[in-house]
Structure formats: structure tokens, C-alpha cells
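seq:
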Amino acid sequence: MSAFAKDIATTALDLTQADHARIFIELLDHYARDPMGGGKALDVRLHQTLIARLKARHDYVAFLAFKGDLACGLINCFEGFSTFAAAPLLNVHDLVVHADHRGRGVAQALLGAAEAAARARGCCKLTLEVLSNNGAALAAYDRAGFHPYVLDPEAGHALFLQKWLAPQTAEAG
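struct:
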């Protein structure tokens, strides 16, 4: 463990605190601007909407990582459910490590906080998605004990797919 890593502290994100909300937006925007986050800034109009909507969710769990007073990471997780295990699971939706602090144990600290939260909630597993060419993230996840989702090796591993839905209009309702 590096000297930097042993001085990393994680704390539960509290979006009712103005400083936490500001740090949350700054780190999430930093991630969005990164090629692995899409390469574009967050839409400014979404900042307050996003915070308000997350505050209303009971399945949302998040942590900030600090090196002293400096915020250097964020993890956003949402609870789901495993029908095969008949138990909740926790999905890591975003893991942000500020570019100036990568490779110093921040991701491991945040993943540890998420795992502790998952265990406290009685979750059977942690899940996440990662871009296939994000070697640094894949290595970090491997160090934390993550593996491709496989039920039967002959059937292959799971793929993460998406389908964007257009917003519904009043006429479509």
C-alpha cells in the first residue's frame, strides 16, 4: 500500500450538504469529460435535477474519497436484486478517480466502502460495467476481486447492452 493510499479516507456522500453536492458535481463532471466517461461535460441544466432525483432514491449509495481535505474520488452505486440468489445486489454505476490521483489506491478505498455498504444491506454481490479497453480500471477491478459474469463457461460471459428510450410526451401517455 502506498503512503498516499493509507491516508485516503472515505465518507458517505450526503447530498444535503452543499460542499458534498459541489464535490459530487465536480467529480462527476471530471469523469464525464474523460474519454472513458464519454468525453463531454455534464449538461449544466442537469446539475440540480440530478441531485434532487438522487436525494429522492432509497436505492442510492455513494461515497467520496479524500486525501486530507482534497476530494479525489467518488463512487455511485444503486441497489438491484438477484433473482437467482433471492437477495439484493449493489451495482457500481460510476467510479471516479480524479486524473491527478489515479494509481494511488483511491479506487480500492472506494470499492472497499461500497463492499462494506453492500454487506450491511445484505447484498449477495457487487456488480459493475467497464469499457473493454479501459485497462487501468480492469486491473483495479481485478485487484478488488471482480471477475466476468459467467454462469457456464460454455455459454460465455455476460455482455452489458443498452437501449436509449425517447422521453414520453403527454400524447404518448
